[in-house]
Amino acid sequence: MKKWLKVGLVCLLAAILIIPLAACNNEEVQTIRVAEVTHSIFYAPQYVAIEKGFFEEEGLKIDLTLTPGGDKVMTALISDGADIGLVGSETSIYVAAQGSSDKVINFAQLTQTDGTFLVSREKIENFDWNQLKGVTFLGQRKGGMPQMVGEFVLKKHGIDPQADLDLIQNVDFANITSAFASGTGDFVQLFEPQASMMEKEGRGYIVASFGEESGHVPYTTFMAKESYMKENKEIIEKFTRAIYKAQKWVEKHNAKEIAEVLQPHFEDTDIEIIEMVVDRYKGQGSYATDPILDEKEWNNLQDIMDEAGELPKRIDHSSLVNTEIAEKILK
């Protein structure tokens, strides 16, 4: 009888342990479709949130899709092909200016500076911006944030992009690096890791940072349609909380540790290059340390767009930016 009693107690104990686990496993995991405008080390906190399980802790599964081009990300959001977009904030302004009835709202900032660098074909010991006068400059696509920031910085240093240099803007984003490598341009505006790879291979030399020159802007943010945010407040809050956890993790860890976490997302890039890129972005404060997109940054963005002649109209911060969720999480 005692033997059967012991067996019964063991079975009961097992049942007590298993039931909560089963209940936990049966909790619904919500899949969120995220469209990222490019796949870049510049977006390190997003990949950290995935790899460190911060989204999973919030009951979210991320379906991440590369959607090249800000216009394509906006199309995906508006047509319900994606729930959340990771793209430059200028795209939300373009959509609003077209009179969209369902505005696209910025709710969590990921990067807070431009992510491009000025690369010279020749090694320059003491670079001066005036050295760009009369050269051929291979820039980014017209109307995008990299090109607008590029022109803003050139003008800041007294250079007229249209008159003082030969500006090339007709090369697709994906082909800019190869175009420079094949001999086009004396200088080029490049993202990482292409800039560092050029330098490592001795085919170009980083001489300046557009991010350091242009100041803080909401360069890349997570955004969603206003209707989606109203219908899915809890999801947006969980998503933002996961991003904030990742931002704090990135802030507290060194470039080597971050590079090791990012490696699965950039298998074709040497770990040394990843570490070098992360260190450069951390050093110039490109990674936002919290998700709040403040009004000063928003106005700086519109000043840059206006200077480039690409601002359709000024739109108030409160109209296209939601900081309530991020502020709630920070508390």
TrEMBL record:
The keyword Signal applies. Pfam families: NMT1_2 (PF13379). The keyword rRNA-binding does not apply. Keywords: Signal. Its main location: periplasm. Residues 1-22 form the signal peptide. It comes from the Bacteria. It is found in: Periplasm. PANTHER family: ALIPHATIC SULFONATES-BINDING PROTEIN-RELATED, TAURINE-BINDING PERIPLASMIC PROTEIN. Belongs to the bacterial solute-binding protein SsuA/TauA family. This is NitT/TauT family transport system substrate-binding protein. It comes from Anoxybacillus andreesenii.
